[in-house]
Specification:
mainly alpha; Fic-like fold; Arc Repressor Mutant, subunit A; 2 domains; three-stranded antiparallel sheet; two-stranded antiparallel sheet; 15 helices; 62% helix
């Protein structure tokens, strides 16, 4: 028998949300988020951060759902999308594509994050034509014991009704005067509790987090991803999601999400500084050791694509394939890139940049 359904609250929930401790944590998160927004603007090409960080987020968010692959396989799948890849690597690549779709749609719709956009992301992620759940029987179980811990709304019309209310809460800033970071945490909890899709709710919910921060202008581009923090604190994430349903106490959940924002902003700040230092080093080496081929576009290519190939340089620099190949081989011979081969295709790795991402704090 299914466990009784949690009564999903109206939005905003009728609870003491902005407590002193919550507002204090929110202020701290805002401080680091504002610093991150400013620092990110100093990177000459925002695509460098968006493209590379989105792959890192895709990998981390998928790991929360026990979809595990290696960084090398993730980059290679992105580099050669038509080549055979593991199911996990394909899932990560689809997550990245769904995130891009959401960000592009948010921009096209002038900051509106609609249910249609959320469904479009789900369809990309799961390679399906379906949308919100219409059939009963969905229940969330404890991974270890198999016990049912939560039953989301069962009827299709209930799912639609709840998602319509959530859509309004996301997009109508007059609905409440809550701090936007607190509101983001509530949106995430509400989405996970509605559980509108047959699968992929966690990953879509985490994409909504960063899109909402972008919508609110707290960051200009989707570069703050909470999945690494959640992966490191996975047990607490699920326990606190359920605790709100069981007790109605929102404060621990809000504090968790606010700390996730603050800690992730700090980590991302350090990462951006590392990227800037490495770009400066590469710029100096290109100018002094490879002056005849140096250009800002070439430098941007080497950082936008930690794994690059002839086609990327050919397109980004507007040079012939032969010239692109010569450039990359010259950089590999000079120690700026590491050359590899996959079948008949060569690819080139910016190893220090890849190592920079791998060295991000993991505990």
């Amino acid at each position: 028998m299914l466990k009784p359904t949690y009564t999903i609250p109206p939005l905003p929930p009728h609870a003491d949300l902005e407590t002193v401790v919550v507002l204090r944590e929110a202020a701290r998160a805002h401080r680091y988020l504002a610093e991150l927004k400013g620092r990110a603007g100093t990177i000459p090409n925002q695509g460098i951060l968006i493209d590379t960080l989105s792959l890192q987020e895709a990998k981390a968010s998928s790991e929360i759902e026990n979809i595990v692959t290696t960084q090398d396989e993730v980059f290679q799948t992105s580099l050669f999308p038509d080549h055979p890849a593991s199911p996990a690597a394909k899932e990560v690549s689809l997550y990245r594509d769904a995130l891009r779709c959401g960000f592009d749609t948010l921009h096209e719709q002038q900051g509106i994050l609609s249910n249609n956009a959320i469904i479009a992301m789900f369809r990309i992620l799961k390679r399906t034509d379906s949308g919100f759940r219409t059939m009963p029987g969905t229940a969330l179980k404890n991974e270890t014991s198999g016990d049912i811990v939560y039953v989301p709304p069962q009827r299709g019309d209930d799912v639609i009704r709840q998602m319509t209310a959530l859509e309004r809460f996301i997009n109508d800033d007059a609905v409440s005067e809550l701090d936007p970071l607190i509101k983001m945490a509530i949106i995430h909890h509400q989405f996970e509790s509605i559980h509108p899709f047959p699968d992929g709710n966690g990953r879509i919910g985490r994409i909504i987090n960063v899109l909402y921060l972008t919508r609110q202008g707290l960051i200009d581009t989707p570069i703050l991803y909470l999945s690494r923090f959640i992966t490191r604190n996975k047990a607490a994430y699920y326990a606190l999601l359920q605790s709100v349903r069981d007790t109605g106490d929102w404060e621990p959940w809000l504090l968790y999400m606010l700390r996730a924002v603050g800690e992730t902003a700090i980590e991302t700040l350090a990462l951006i500084e590392g990227v800037k230092r490495l770009m400066a080093e590469y710029k100096h080496r290109l100018r002094t050791q490879h002056a005849r081929i140096y250009s800002q576009d070439l430098l941007n290519n080497l950082f936008r694509h930690p794994y690059t190939r002839i086609e990327y340089v050919h397109k980004d620099l507007g040079v012939t394939r032969q010239t692109a190949a010569k450039h990359l081989d010259q950089l590999a011979e000079g120690g700026l890139l590491v050359k590899h081969q996959s079948g008949r295709n060569n690819y080139y790795i910016n190893a220090p940049l890849v190592e920079l991402f791998a060295e991000r704090p993991s505990s």
